[in-house]
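hey so i finally got around to running both of the ones u sent me last week. sorry it took forever, my laptop kept dying halfway thru and i had to restart like 3 times lol. anyway pasting them below in the order u listed, first the sequence line then the structure token line for each. didnt double check formatting much so if smth looks off just lmk and ill redo it

first one:
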Amino acid sequence: MGALLEGLGHTPAHVAGTSFGASVLLGLAARRPELFRGIAVHEPPPMEVLADGPAAMEQLQPAMVSIAPVLDHLRKAEPDLADFAEVVARLR
């Protein structure tokens, strides 16, 4: 996302994200605030909160398996998302 915004020359930008995209947006905004004029997030998954509960993690496991290819793609395409991907990977 950061590379896209920079490549298009549209920074700082107003950006919105929902669900997992909201989590990605929050992580990028925390690391690269200069890219954003404003952000709007809708229902980011509370993965770090769920990590404390074994029962919740058991329910989250199928979702983590299904988003693994997305996280792999993000790691390759945008290295500054590696920290966020590592946080999510620890939840597996």
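and the second one:
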Amino acid sequence: MSALEEIGLRIQQARKENSLTQEQLAELAGISERTVRAIETATGNPSVNGLLAAAAVLGLRLVVTE
């Protein structure tokens, strides 16, 4: 599983744990629903800002390690 797939899966899990739809998460994060779908399915090329915004709404942090 790629790093992007892992991030997408964790964001999807957290969204569902918070009983949010993709549309609701998008609105709260100030990103498009299409971006939320791209993040969760690890498709396309979502921006780092989009990833950070979605993670922040869900109380998640993105950490870069070596």
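quick thing i noticed on the 2nd:
Helices lie at 3-17, 22-29, 33-41, 48-57.
anyway thats it, ttyl
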